[in-house]
Amino acid sequence: LLGKDLYTMIHQLGSRIRILHVHDNNGLEDEHLFPYMGIIDWDRFCLGLHEIGYLGALSFETFRAMRLTDKALAPQMLALLHATGTLFAGRIKRNR
Looking at residue 86, what DSSP letter applies? Predict the structure, then answer.
């Protein structure tokens, strides 16, 4: 939303990052979407966190995506979010 490069910001903040409020958006609004439903470059996000040795939590705030989906799909949506978190964690921790 700020038009900043996420990778650069991660390196500027470095070890001061302790926990992350994670969600995607369209670049104009704070939409709280699942990763890959907006414009965030998640590969650069994970690479930056890997390079600074991030060991903190990933706190997904994706309530809007859940509200936009039929409640019958909630288990599958939550499974997708879990799989995304597992993917990110593996990319952040790789080669350690």
Answer: H
